[in-house]
Amino acid sequence: MERIVYMDNAATTPVDAAVLDEMKPFFTEQFANPMTYAHSSSGDVAHVAVEEARVRVASLIGSQPEQVMFTSGGTESDNWVLKGTVERASRERLHKSGHLVTAEFEHHAILHSALALQRQGYEVTFVKVGHSGIVDPDDVQRAMRPTTALVSIMHANNEIGTIQPIADIARIAHEHGALMHTDAVQTTAHIPVDVDTLGVDFLSVSAHKFNGPKGVGILFVRDQEALYPFIDGGGQEWGLRGSTHNVPGIVGLGKAAQLGKERLPRELERLTMLRDMLLSKLSAQIDGIVVNGDMKQRVPQNLNIRIEGIDNEPLLLAMNEAGIIAAGGSACNALETLASHVLTSIGCDLKEAKSSIRLSLGYATTTEDVNYAIDVIPGLVKFLRSMA
């Protein structure tokens, strides 16, 4: 195999060397439980490290440290906020069946949680998404009911990268007395994310999407009274989320948040330039390329295209053989043979969805990497088209 060019950063990113270095002592020398800080010097070191990480994450998203709840990642955060708020609101605030509003193209952490709530008797409205891949706030407005407890719309879609008008949707939610959540897993540390500017009550983040470790994330909670505890246990996270803290992971998340904030302005500009160059030069060599979703309202690291006359599976396999790692959709959906629900939700038919690939860039992506992809992919497409 020739060089490896990793273009699946929307699925996960490599842990930054500086993040790993900061994590290492908490596996070995500083292994104490942070909850023992009151009577243990080792526990105090761990406690201080956890709280420093909380401050770093808060600085990245514009919140207060005490509004940052550590979780195992975006999926847990999404499950927690949907199930915790709808149940609490229906039982304590509305005294009737709670109603959830979300969108058809959400990550499965949201969609499957919504379906689980439906099975329990709660009402869910799935708002349709336009061809551009952007949710229309007017559609959210029409979906609102007196019983609506929560609106959950992702900040940017994980497959097509389109950025949603979260601030406008949050205003609508609040006008109707509902709470607002956004899954910001694909945007945090990639574009500016500020919880007050967005106007959200809850926001989900996952460390491994911006060069932190897997298995750790956060849920921003503006008001702790708005949701039920998700894991009962030893009183961690203000009694809202029991379980011994994953100290090395939390420390890694904190360092990744610090680096992400420092690097964000230049990385936003650099990745936008690389992505646009990739699209421009591929389009110049390959006929029949169509971008899935809006190209302007899009995170800088995402390019999702369909290529007429090919099937994405043999193309991705051929790219992999050439050392280019990419995807046909969400990593969480990789084993399914059905077309991407995201692409069908924006109007792609089965053939169009199965001819689409996602090329996602990251901090480690170089100009040389992009040029290599530009050199290799057109030849693979030409060969596959000739075989078809």
Task: Describe the structure in your own words.
The chain has 388 residues and is an alpha/beta fold. The chain folds into two domains: 133 residues, Aspartate Aminotransferase, domain 1 (Alpha-Beta Complex); 243 residues, 3-Layer(aba) Sandwich (Aspartate Aminotransferase, domain 2), CATH 3.40.640. Helix content is 41%, strand content 13%. The longest helix is centred in the C-terminal third of the chain and has 39 residues. It starts with a strand and ends with a helix. 51% of the residues are buried.
Quick take:
The chain is about 40% helix and about 15% strand. With about 400 residues, the chain is an alpha/beta fold.
Compile the SSE list and pairings.
Elements: E1 5-6, H1 17-23, H2 41-61, E2 68-71, H3 74-93, E3 99-103, H4 108-119, E4 123-127, H5 137-143, E5 148-152, H6 166-175, E6 179-183, H7 195-198, E7 202-206, E8 217-221, H8 247-285, E9 289-291, E10 302-307, H9 312-321, E11 324-325, H10 341-345, H11 350-353, E12 356-360, H12 367-387
The overall pLDDT, averaged over residues, is: 94
Low-confidence stretches are none
CATH architecture of the largest domain: 3-Layer(aba) Sandwich
Number of strands: 12
CATH fold topology of the largest domain = Aspartate Aminotransferase, domain 2
C-alpha-based Rg, rounded: 21 Å
What does the overall shape look like?
globular
Descriptive terms for the model:
single chain, 388 residues, alpha/beta, Aspartate Aminotransferase, domain 1, Aspartate Aminotransferase, domain 2, 2 domains, 7-stranded mixed beta sheet, 3-stranded antiparallel beta sheet, 12 helices, globular
